[in-house]
Amino acid sequence: MSSAVVCTSAALGRPFVLDDEVFTGLSPDLELFSEGRSPKPVRRSRDGAFADPRLAGITSASRLDIRPAPQMVSSGIAAIDALAGGLPRGCLTEICGPASSGRTTFLLSTLAAATRRGEFCAVVDASDALDPQSVADAGVELDRLLWVRCGESSSSKNAEPEDNASLAEKFSPFRQRKSRTSESRLEQVLRATDLLLESGGFGLIVLDLGDVPPQEARRVPLTTWFRFRRAVEHTPTLLLAIEQQPIAGSCSSLLFQLKSKCGRVRELAAAASPHIELAHTQLLTGIEITAELIYSRLDRKPVRSATAAFISRTAWAG
Q: Is pLDDT of 59 > 70?
């Protein structure tokens, strides 16, 4: 087993001189060290460029360009815009929260704000849960909305078992069959998102994974989220992921956690006819929602959580 002596210029008594024209660098050829010869000096010009053609692709840190901040657009909710400055274009934003936490309110408000700006939007619905009437009532221009409804294909529903393994799966517990359906829909979501990002032309693309169980949603590889982030980078598209728990990791630029505080109700007895007693009847008029900014990768300041509150009102509340 052969060994090579690795040494630095400081060990040879030749320290680096950063302000002069010449500084000593290590040669990539290790034969110089094995033969006991010193590395060749590498010349650098005054503007920081290296004269050695082998180091032509190296740029000094002082010459690196600062990445511009992304353009921020309104989310349609004044409290969210005041909290984070809006939503960034060319980035991935995650909206997390359990059921009845305000995820749909956030989605509809963002869609309405985007269509009012004249942008085309796409919603990749993993659970086919979007209500067109609620979308229209929220002020979304339906002519500018593409709704991708994901679900189990008809071929998989009518397919007959071909072997013992598929037969066992057919008579397996309901929980296992439900897991297979979730995986199938998740694959459709990822394929549809890839096609939408490649086609371009959308101001807002939403991945609605709110009804997908967290254990199933976490099966999406981190490389997939990284590919989505790179595809939307340097474009005017806003990529929004709605889910129960964070799953994109470091690939997202903003992460919001939504929680519902309490519901606002109104007694119907006062508004009803005096001849009809509705002492125990109440009408839900809205929900108070708290949004917490878990982290923001757009700021270079220390990460700290901040909260904002807003109210989601029902259509019949006026």
A: no
CATH topology of domain 72-317: Rossmann fold (3.40.50)
pTM for the predicted model, two decimal places: 0.68
Domain boundaries, the chain: 1-64, 72-317
63 CA to centre of own chain:
31
The answer to whether residue 78 scores a pLDDT higher than 90 is yes
Question: What's the CA gap between 227 and 225, in Å, rounded?
Answer: 5
| 114's tokens | 């985007």
Q: Where are the beta strands (DSSP E) in the chain?
A: 22-24, 41-43, 72-73, 87-88, 92-96, 121-125, 145-149, 204-208, 238-243, 254-267, 282-296, 306-313
Q: What is the pLDDT of residues 265-280, one digit of tens each?
A: 565 544 444 554 555 6
> Are β-strands 282-296 and 306-313 bridged in parallel, bridged antiparallel, or unpaired?
antiparallel
Task: Name beta bridge partners: 147.
Answer: 123
Residues with Cβ within 8 Å of 113's Cβ and at least 6 positions away in sequence, in order, are 73, 74, 75, 76
Q: What are phi and psi of 15, to 5 degrees?
A: -70, 160
